[in-house]
Amino acid sequence: MPRYGASLRQSCPRSGREQGQDGTAGAPGLLWMGLALALALALALALALSDSRVLWAPAEAHPLSPQGHPARLHRIVPRLRDVFGWGNLTCPICKGLFTAINLGLKKEPNVARVGSVAIKLCNLLKIAPPAVCQSIVHLFEDDMVEVWRRSVLSPSEACGLLLGSTCGHWDIFSSWNISLPTVPKPPPKPPSPPAPGAPVSRILFLTDLHWDHDYLEGTDPDCADPLCCRRGSGLPPASRPGAGYWGEYSKCDLPLRTLESLLSGLGPAGPFDMVYWTGDIPAHDVWHQTRQDQLRALTTVTALVRKFLGPVPVYPAVGNHESTPVNSFPPPFIEGNHSSRWLYEAMAKAWEPWLPAEALRTLRYLSSVETQEGKRKVHIIGHIPPGHCLKSWSWNYYRIVARYENTLAAQFFGHTHVDEFEVFYDEETLSRPLAVAFLAPSATTYIGLNPVSPTSLQVTVCTK
Question: What DSSP letter does each residue of 381-392 carry, written as one string?
Fold first, then answer.
């Protein structure tokens, strides 16, 4: 997930007031420290999310439990208490601090000052190497301050995170429930094996390609940065080899020639009736990415897929790496420079030959692709599998799958870089399996998991 570098907005000059010179803020120094703390926590989370191996342990079938990033946060918060002596911070003072933060942001959201303090915190807590700390803070600071400015998080909830439940409560996994139709659920219909000779469809399943345009053969595959095998990684010690020509089984993504070789070799395995492409096109250099970088990855790899797969229909899903900052997908009501419209419009243009008009409309608005044909069986495709989402999202998705088990034929996801599956069970007995989600391995070799082989890219499904 990590990508870093100067963002487009960084090239714009800032006013003297925005530069955070001493004496311009008018708010107490604790205000900026509190905001910087929030930004540092966000950066730690972003970097943690870049490593699926650290992030996600195998998901339990039911109930779906929160995993990954909470543990990272809980490790960092005690270190912050030790560094700043927050063991003696009282609840009233904490709430007063965050009240001042909220008021100060409404008066003057000083992005540069927040960023400066956050860089110091990132270095102090050793969240990342100094150069990465500086780049990722500059990439995230504008959006982070804007999110905090719009946040409905109360001082009590913020202090509950820092000081514990006696001061307040903030549960990002709190429950919420969707409203399902009142029409009674039809009796379950157990699947029956297809008759011999029944028609089938052959589907090509691609995910997590992660093209690194800075990949460089011979560089260090075990550098200090979150992503290696690239310009800036340096040379490895004489005792071990550098990055290979086609890639490296390490903290490295792939050169374009490897993706081209993979796609060109799929011809003999075809023909395919359709392609499911479940996202994550750019590399994991999340601290060093611009919008221009993301759009280059989108258009370059899309052109490569079209070149080798020709007229085969491709159904894409949006990965968490497609945007910058990573994981940044503001809701549709966010307008201006903080909107994701720049990405959605580019996707709609790049994928227009594959998708109907209605699907392009939902893509431009919600970053989702939806196609409908009558009362047929359906497939759901996406990037992050339900067992790896926040608890409340996973639980509600689970309810939808259970309600429509007679309609839902299969689910396809990526993100984990592992060849695996998730099984859904009946909510009442927890013993009757009612659905399955297939998770494809990645094309990239990043973090030493099991990259895909051409034979595992194929899915055969019955059409009736």
Answer: E-SS-GGGS-HH
DSSP 8-state secondary structure symbol assigned to residue 439: E
Residue 26 CB burial class (10 angstroms; 0-12, 13-18, ≥19):
exposed
Q: What's the CA gap between 10 and 290, in Å, rounded?
A: 9
pTM: 0.79
Q: Is the dihedral of CA 227, 230, 233, 239 positive or negative?
A: positive
Distance between CA atoms of 215 and 228, rounded to whole angstroms?
A: 8
Is the pLDDT score of 302 beyond 80?
A: yes
- pLDDT tier at 46 (50, 70, 90 boundaries)? low
pLDDT at 52 over 70: no
Residues across the chain: 464
CA separation for the pair 401, 178 (Å, rounded): 13
Please tell me the distance from the alpha carbon of residue 45 to that of residue 71, in angstroms, as a whole number. 10
Q: Which DSSP symbol is given to 266?
A: T
- pLDDT, one tens digit per residue, over 74-127 is 555 565 555 555 555 688 888 887 787 777 666 666 788 778 878 887 888 787
- In whole angstroms, what is the distance from residue 135 CA to residue 174 CA? 33
Residue corresponding to tokens 């929160």: 66
Q: Which residues pair with 59 in a beta bridge?
A: none
Contacts of 34 (CB under 8 A, 6+ apart): 97, 98, 100, 101
Q: What is the mean predicted confidence (pLDDT) over 62-81?
A: 47
